[in-house]
Amino acid sequence: MLEVRSVSKRFGxxxxxxxxxxxxxxxxxxxxxxxxxxxKTTTVNLISGRMPVDRGSIVFKGQxxxxxxxxxxxxxxxxxTFQISRELRALTVMENMLIAAQLQPFEGIVxxxxxxxxxxxxxxxxVRKAFELLELFxxxxxxxxxxxxxxxxxxxxxxxxxxxxxxxxxxxxxxxLAGVNPTTARNIAEYIETMRARGITLLIIEHNxxxxxxxxxxxxVMAEGSVLAEGSxxxxxxxxxxxxxxxxxxx
Length: 251
Hints:
Elements: E1 2-11, E2 14-24, E3 29-33, H1 40-48, E4 55-60, E5 63-64, H2 70-75, E6 78-80, H3 93-99, H4 109-114, H5 116-136, H6 152-164, E7 170-174, H7 182-197, E8 201-205, H8 209-215, E9 218-223, E10 226-231, H9 233-237, H10 240-247
Parallel strand pairs: 3-8, 3-9, 6-7, 7-8
Antiparallel strand pairs: 1-2, 1-4, 4-5, 9-10
Helix pairs in contact: 3-6, 5-6
């Protein structure tokens, strides 16, 4: 589904991503791990269109997507979340959900005048879908609450729920367990497993290696901007290069 081919990105004299290559197969859950500064988030920024690629190519479902704007990448079925939740604080939880819904093909000035019925029907479908996702993430009782008033864990859940409003085929989760308590982390892990069961392909950046082992069938290790190793979590833990660069000791 996704091919990252010899991708590089410089920031001045620093090569944050250096000839990085890997693939993500459809309907799999892949972990992307590595020490701080390994280039993981920069790689995700390049894949999702947040940053332009200096060299290399990124192919999604057989089509190149490097240097497309984020909204076009999302329209093609590739969505991402962020390390820090990016809720729209001045909007309600429901409004946060609806603003992420895919635009209808008949939206426009002329259509707004002549296709009111279809637009109202689409809006009802969007609200129905948003409520279903909020119920799934146990946030439906907060639908009319301003996002600014949510707890850190609730904001993380809102971001996950909102990402599903785009109907992603591939969802990139950037440290989904960061900054939440152990109970919320376990709950989020269960929701991620639900996404897997729905057939969504997942690429997960995460430092909690126990959760990576639980959620991911294959792991990609990055160091100094490129791929250092790939394999199961057991293989990764026993790889001397990974131990030296990241884990620090054989577990």
